[in-house]
Input
Amino acid sequence: MAKVLQEATKMTQVQKMVKKALTGNEAAAYAMRQINPDVVAAYPITPATEIVQIYSSYVADGLVNTEFVAVESEHSAMSATVGACAAGGRAMTATSSQGLALMWEMLYIAAGLRLPIVMPVTNRALSAPINIHGDHSDTMGARDAGWIHIFSENSQEVYDNIIQAIRIAEHKDVLLPVMVTMDGFIISHAMEVVEVAPDELVSKFVGIYKPDRYLLDIDNPMTMGGLDFTDYYFEHRRSLAEPMFHAKEHILAVASEFEREFGRKYGLFEEYRMDNAEYAIVVLGSTAGTAKVAVDELREQGVKAGMIKVRIFRPFPYDEIAHAVSECRAAAVLDRSDGLAGRGGPVFGEVRSAICDMEKKPVTMNYVYGLGGRDINVEMIKSVYKDLQRAVATGERALVNYLGVRD
Amino acid sequence: MANIKELAKQEEKLSAGHRACSGCTAPMVVRMLYMAAGDTPLVIGCATGCLEVTTTIFPNTSWKTSFIHSAFENSAATVSGVEAAYKSLKKQGRYDRDVRFVAFGGDGGTYDIGFQSLSGAMERGHNMVYVCYNNEAYMNTGVQRSSATPKFGETTTSPVGSVEPGKKQFPKDLTEIMVAHSIPYVAQASPSMWNDLITKFQKALNCGGPAFVNVLSPCRLGWAFPSEKAVSIGRDAVNTCVWPLYEVVDGQYKITYKPREKKPVDEYLKQQTRYRHLFRPGGEAALAEIQANVDSKWERLKRLAGEA
Output
């Protein structure tokens, strides 16, 4: 009986979701308001500016308990966030592009100090040339910093991912910072229908941040950020790798709890029409929406096309993605940044590494696309599937391709 | 005004065993800060530098109160975040202790790379004290010039050569720049004048807003003097008016110590190897230039304090 009641309560909660028209930035700010962190320290940068702009209006209107610190740079934004989180507060910031680049030093420190900071990042190209539009160069530049990276396809996912990120970051066995990304302008400034939960549900879901050790615990003083010589540094960095290895299970546990409470399902990645797929593309962010249309059209034409949308980029779901593409004849990886590694983009490297030990593996190709916000459309994605079919049929392929660029 | 008998009874909160050089004045500055705070709990942040690397070698720490180091250029920003969390938790009724916040930085971490972070934190009005332990060069990396290095001072990046005289510029006056931030409390101090320094720390900790204290901290490695001379050299800096002791409370200047007899700068400079080239034949003009600069700044300070 109690269980039935419980289920009924949950149903009511799910039903209490309200539909709102929100841009990605608005969805991020909305989620942050509901999370109500103790401190937000931020600096404006296009296209993430709106997040902190909206947030400061929440502060001005007394809708949150947050102490808003309008810092003088992104370096100080992350430094103050580190200080606030180390002090014992739940602390957030948001940024983009050059701002993230300026934070770079502090990203490593936030992770190294095991501070569960959550930061929405509106993905934008890196200079030079200066460009304000969406690509993944900024967060890909921070991929080895020790942060969990969660990509979002649309405003709804931005909202859902930020709420889940708090729980993931603050899990005692994780304690790693999390960045939740959205494509600049394409998501950040596009109005979409977003289902938002009541404030109380989000509040209850994220709970109150209670760290075991923190600076303001003055009866148990602690030293944070000490100096390691050759005798301890390696062990400390090794202990940072450990929670990243195991973060996947906690990410999935939070996702299933989220599904129960909010009614929407999340995994490490999304498989779209991958059943019996022969040709797959692996993609991140908003392009997944476009790719789904291409997949549907190709399926209508009898092409066994499928798509994998990576949600969790760090820790990368190597085994799971390898398994997902194992039955494919060919797979293309679409990178919205160019790692300038001499062999394609960063996601390509991860996928190739994932399938490396498989006995039977798909033919792989890489497509760098959309740099500086260059459009990608359904026809372009269909041309990738055509290339994959040709590669399988003829054995001819270019390993690294640039899609939608004038040569 | 501090009472030395009372101060001596306090528990040491920077424990012995740190790796600072013998004769290093930075730990003296920290201990005097703790003395000034008394029973008021402190959370302290520190920029990368001598003080941080010599006191926090894992698995040891010299700090008996909570301490955070995150990077070089952001001591002020980091502590501003700590203070913001404190304010937030207090406002929400989730924290009820009375704590003060202090950020340390050397002159490199304060005058140069951390300048923006310091300026931002002071402008935002955080209730915190920033203490610059100013030893007038990048000592932790092996004595390189900073914008606090005095004119003609020799460092490894302002070496004395056959055509160069050591550092070619006068230092920027950071204390005055902090005064221009219109914060409640700004002071210049010296660990050699313990009573003055502790009193200033007490005022800084209790001014209710951002405070900045610039403490000239003689460095026996970089200035090159025998370690037992650290305190007397600091006193000579004060008595020659190379480093005047003053405070600016809500914009009002006050000279907190006036030398009975203002000594010539030579007496201070000649004890330090970084100035030895000035005492060779041909160094007279440089010495005169330093003296003239010290004189004019001292006269200006007296005017600002209404004592001219």
User: Anything to note?
Assistant: The interface with chain B takes residues 38-39, 41, 65-67, 69-73, 75-76, 79-89, 91, 105-106, 109, 113, 215-218, 221-229, 232, 236 of chain A (CB under 8 Å). DSSP finds 13 helices and 16 strands in chain A. Residues 20-195+233-262 of chain A form a domain with the Rossmann fold fold (CATH 3.40.50.970).
